[in-house]
Specification:
The chain is mainly α and about 210 residues long. The protein has eleven helices and no strands.
Amino acid sequence: MGRKSLKETRQKEIIKVFYKLAKKEGLENTSIAKIAKEMDINPSLIIHYFQTREDLTYGLIDYILDKYQLIYKVSPKKPVDSRTALIAIINNIFSKKWNSLFDDGLFYSCYSLAFREPKIADMYKKLLDSLRLSLRGHIEQCRIEGHLAIEDSDEISDNIFVLVDGAYFYLSLVKEKAEYEKKLSKYRAQAMEMLQLSEASALMAPDFAA
């Protein structure tokens, strides 16, 4: 047990340095040698924990995807009803919180690998499927309890998820603050409209930390 814990700790330390360097220099320009130099260790130690560059990349993607999940997580400080929780999730999704969780450039660099690496494609698909199902569960709970006047929770969750995915990519290209905030507010309003909820509800909902 102790050895496994030490291994996981060292792997995480290496991944964090990999993330830091790849964010600065680009994924394709970050080598095992550069990571070892940054950590002041022998490259062979990194090979000990990650046998290949591919294994190291898989670890980096796992690290990024774990951060991605936090966008959809709501941790209320006190019990709330399902409607309030759903609105809080929408607020989390359409907020700037994800900017502080991971670097857009690095995220999409890793994402592009999914078109060439089946394993990476599977990693992304499993995560995105689980997030969509989680959102669907929140929407369906609200529908069952009579908070939403919608017929198909699955269709609504799919549409919101597609909106989010497109919004994230587009907003990563927007540099002007006013335009960014205007677009973000517009996308959130569209999601609220899909749910047949008022934008005022979103503005009044408590802000739960992701």
